[in-house]
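Hey,
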Amino acid sequence: MSEHATETRGFQAEVSRLMRLMIHSMYSHREIFLRELISNASDACDRRRFAALADPSLAGGGEAYGIRVDFDSKARTLTVSDSGIGMTRDEAGEHLGTIAKSGTAEFFARLTGDEQKDSQLIGQFGVGFYSVFIVAERVEVRSRRAGIESAVAVCWSSSGEGEYTLETITRDEIGTAVTLHLKEDAAEFADPFRLRALIRRYSDHIAFPVLLRPDGGKGEYDRVNQAQALWTRPRQELSDDDYREFYRHVAHDAAEPLAWSHNQVEGRREYTTLLYIPAAAPFDLYNRESPRGLRLYVRRVFILDDAEQFLPLFLRFIKGVVDSADLPLNVSRELLQQDAEVLAIKGAITRRVLEMLARLANDEPEKYRTFWKEFGGVLKEGVIEDPGNRERILPLLRFASTVGDGELHSLADYVARMPEGQKQVYYLLADSATAARQSPQLEGLRARGVEVLLLSDRIDPWLATHLDEVDGRVIKDVASGELELAGLPPLTAAVAPVDTMPALYARIAARLAERVAGVRVSTRLAESAACLVRDSADPGPQLRRLLEAAGQKLPESRSWLELNPAHPLVVRLHLLPDGAAFDSLAALLADQAQIAEGGVPPDPAGFVRRLNDWLLGKY
């Protein structure tokens, strides 16, 4: 096949399905396509300018970077051209014919059928280009990458119906031109007044000139946008709408951000930051290897798209820009990771974000609840990974508890509600909030009117190992070690005296010696017959499963079996003589205790037989 051959290919299956969805239902506002095209053109100009720092020949003949919008009302065409980095033939096939990043399945899984909600997914999955097919019956993309000959440029074209064509062409200009052959009902987008209004609305913040001919002919171009980096403008000149539109550009997210912070730092270090807290988590939030970070500029020159060095990993959801006046223009990723100035800026940005979150929690609790639902699990990582900011992060944490129905509470809320005499903050780990609420471990504290925090996120077993105290009070796992109840209100229900069954505990321990570390009376139980309690030094079942899944081998450990001497089953067991019935009921109680905490009995078939024997009245 010669280099000038025309080639027709089929879209990746996911792209075909995506375009059908977008064309017929995804966007509630069709004009969004223009924002996406201009945003892509701006990114291309940024990338060429950055590449030219290392290879000045890529800058070409000194032509100014910019974006042109041309239209022909009679022919119903609209063209968005840029002087950016451009594409090769292979890159055009890869970027426009496939979804190059992972997560396609997650994209479709999150579609709801609600046009307004579904349209907000576009930017999160990097598929904004395909929005052109909402208004275009055919699209042509002509591109020449900086640094290659004009004779090996590429033309990509498609009508969005399952196939696209690649053709090698000659193109004198470096960059990309996207031409839309508009549908009959989209002729409004070949009108100069409509285009000017849309550019000012969606792309006024773009750092490169967006040029438009008033008559669509061969006259002079007018600059439509201010072409000034928004973050360099004084805050008093900017409206909330300005900030929201810039967020959509920098985050490729159609939803509104929850909050933002715009700051200029002067003195020993000079830099500007514009930081945003998104309203929804991206599909790959918990993939710690995914690209993340702020967009880095040095003296308004684009350097890196995902400068991860300026944010700790637990704040990887933050979007925005950092523009430094001190870093060298040719700074590399390796240098960034070791540069003392970068570390200082990172520390300051981290504190700034935590202050934003604290203000959001105090001033707009509804928005903070939205934030916590989307990003709370990631923020908890900060307690583990950033001890220096631990005291700033702890007040931001939220937990379910035995108080309220599904409400979330801060540690300060918990401490404020503690009854007089309570010296510890109690928590319980479980696989789910439902399992935690129904755990027998809570019964004694609940009966005494003591609140318990319920931890059920995947990261909570790790978090618990780093929660030692809060506000001078020890944080205690109610399923671990002896439970000190001195100073707490007494139980409201009568419980048998501790010394009524000392011989029973020894009898059970002798028969369950291979399963439990020992048997003792419980101060935790008020309604259930038995529960399992591990030693304070032993990892809980949730943490044990996580460590084993990571390939770590843990020594075997046995929990204590605690009994409620007031429960009828325990009383029945106390009255049984040694023999098969005693052994069966003792083992059944241990099985029940293990199931209650989300575990599986060591001999499930034996558990079923024992249960059936008692149900059928064998004993």
